[in-house]
Structure prediction request, 80 residues.
Amino acid sequence: MGYCYLCEKECTETYFSYFCSKCRRIKHLINLYEEDVYNTLECVLVRDKKQQQHKIKTMDVKSVEKVKTRSQTKIIDEVD
Ligand SMILES: [Zn+2]
Prediction:
């Protein structure tokens, strides 16, 4: 079997197929949703540097807030 024509990493499902199972699913989704798939990829996954920094800051704030939850504070108080 050869490599998938889309990802070029995984092996194809059968000798005569062009795609691996994941990429065949992607192709199916593209056939179903057409432009929505492209728009979603561009709007959600493709980000410039500024957008990446915003996302990183957002993730940092979430991780800090996660440490300061009440239940975690209670657990820390009970241990002390
Ligand atoms: Zn693939």
User: Anything to note?
Assistant: Helices lie at 21-33, 35-45, 49-67, 70-79. The chain is about 65% helix and 0% strand.
